[in-house]
Amino acid sequence: MAGSGAALTPEAAGPDSAGRAADLCSLLENYLDPHNVQKVYRAYQFGADAHQGQRRLSGEPYITHPLAVARTLGEMGLDADSLCAAILHDVIEDTPTAKAEIAEAFGGEVAQLVDGVSKLTQINFRSKAEAQAENFRKMILAMSKDIRVILIKLADRLHNMRTIFVMPPSKRARIARETLEIYAPIAQRLGINSIRVELEDLGFAALHPMRYRVLKERVRQQLGSRRELLDKVRDEIQASLTEADINAQITARQKHLWSIYQKMRSKQAGFEDIFDVYGFRVVVSDVDTCYRVLGHCHGRYKPLPGRIKDYIAIPKANGYQSLHTTLLGPRRIQLEVQIRTAEMDRVAEAGIAAHWLYKEPGQPSNVAQTRAREWVHGLLEIQENVGNSLEFIENVKIDLLPDEVYVFTPGGDIMELPKGATVVDFAYMVHSEIGDACIAANIDNRLAPLRTPLRTGQTVEVITAPVARPNPAWLDFVVTAKARAAIRHSLKRLKGAEATDLGRRLVERGLNAMDLSLGDLADEQIEQALTTFGVERVDEVFEEVGLGQRMPWFVARYLAEGDDSTRSVGRAGGSGGSLMLRGDEGAVVTFARCCRPIPGDPIVGFASAGRGVVVHHEACNNIREYRKHPEKWVDVQWDAIAEGEYPVAVDMDVMNNRGVLASVTAVVSDLDSNIDAVEIEEKEGMIATLRLVMGVRDRAHLARIMRRLRGLSAVLRITRRRG
Length: 723
What we know:
Blueprint: H1 10-13, H2 15-28, H3 34-50, H4 64-75, H5 80-87, H6 91-94, H7 99-106, H8 108-117, H9 128-145, H10 148-162, H11 169-189, H12 193-207, H13 209-243, E1 249-254, H14 257-267, E2 278-284, H15 287-300, E3 302-303, E4 309-310, E5 323-328, E6 334-341, H16 342-350, H17 367-385, H18 389-399, E7 404-408, E8 414-418, H19 423-430, H20 432-437, E9 438-443, E10 446-448, E11 460-464, H21 481-493, H22 497-512, H23 523-533, H24 538-546, H25 552-561, E12 579-581, E13 589-591, E14 603-608, E15 612-617, E16 633-634, E17 636-638, E18 646-655, H26 660-670, E19 675-682, E20 687-696, H27 699-710, E21 715-720
Parallel strand pairs: 2-6, 13-15
Antiparallel strand pairs: 1-2, 3-5, 4-5, 5-6, 7-8, 9-10, 9-11, 12-17, 14-15, 14-16, 18-20, 18-21, 19-20
């Protein structure tokens, strides 16, 4: 009977699997006591019995796969229960064995681990995507109770990727994509670099086999031509450290293929343009020596500005610590040097598995383990706030972005956020209540809108208001899964009376700014507004305002002034275009003449009495006066397809030759633009300044015109005028 646990002879289990089991036990004898080694061997016998007769696509007995998974965990030094669960991780899913049988034979902990890794097989899902998402959600919940679940799953995925090439191409590509999008980032998030690198390269080879082979050959060729140079650099650094009486272990390192490929894609560059393919890792005894080594490296070779990163003082989100610097070596070759202690090196490779927490119950956890628990806690918060498994897995993918920025709270605490995170992401990272009530922020003592992306080193203070509520428009620019899930959760809770009450107060405030109140409005005005809004009751309008679906300022204006043809999306100076306003349509929109924003520009909107929303370029000097009134800020965004012409101001310093204006006009006309206004300012000598206002479609159109104008021999300088 499958799962009975009856002892098998090596012949019954298969000679190959029996040999692998013996090799595994030999490995485990290095750090487990004999009793636990015997327990693992019993798990092998139990698993071999349960999987008897089953084979993999490669033709091997199925038990060879669980043994390979267990060996990976054994090389990481995991405990006996983890190893037993690794060997048995498929028996619930693929055999008649019940969870209770595993618990009886090996204890409840092993049974819980096996159940955590097992897929949901008794439920019918509407689609394969939904089934995968729900299985992933189940695994994450199990991981929150015991982090070893994800370690078993990563080792399982690693062996599956090592043997993936026996699968059909379509299935191979799907599994490879899932590995690159989810499992490799999880390995990185947990700091397990050794597994992460192999998963990425195996996924790359399976998903893009031709690109993988070509890039692998290019790297091999380049290494051959540079080996002598790399040896020379290593010897010189070693000599410098020896002379300073610093004991260090220096090893050459090569950026793995997936990392090189990703860098080529992000920079849209060829392989010959990627300079830091090779580098060195320097391992020393203590932190002080790390910084001394950094000084010696900079004394020997010139460091590249902006390429020095101190992850010792500020560790990465996964607990990784090291000093990074990029040196300009011989023949101007760029070489990255990583400097760390032996303990940091172990954590960098093994992450949460370094000095495994379960080996010694009293042993303090390392940085990676602490960060892993914080991350899992964050996943639980996300899980509580999302509606379904597909939404959850998408949020987790967002949360797995590897690049971080580090910003400071007013109290000096460091907050880690993914690259591109905004003020709203920061607010929700501090606390969900802060996020729900945020209206703006002080960044380095300067007022900034909520959509402002944060940069490393900034100090951020969130400004809140008691009546503020989350805006659906925030979902367009937040990047953290925690913020996205919390916003959606809060918006759902705002349904009904609370949203109506909030909307009523916001509209009342808008009317007060016009010296009116709801009681001053005639019934005819309200009825006309309800017809326009397509609702039957005014409370429905207030609820939409409270939920962020309509802007209170514009609802107030419409109630006060009624229908007006000027309420369509308008244009500054008579030019037209398409602007998407989050939360309301039919608003008066004016493009500021001071900065003349065009499609593609980062923009900020301000509600202004008599002018509707005035849209400025984010860099406009004239928006300073609005910074004291963040409640008037409006979230505006260009439509994906913005049409029409927009006026833009350009200044040109030119040689004051005959015919220069005609040449400029010809270029502008040739590129399908018109000059609406021109001023000529005489300067000293033969130089004059042409101040043009011309119509363009977007930033790309303007860039083409400016590029052609720079090519004129008479043009000395050309700039865009913004406020």
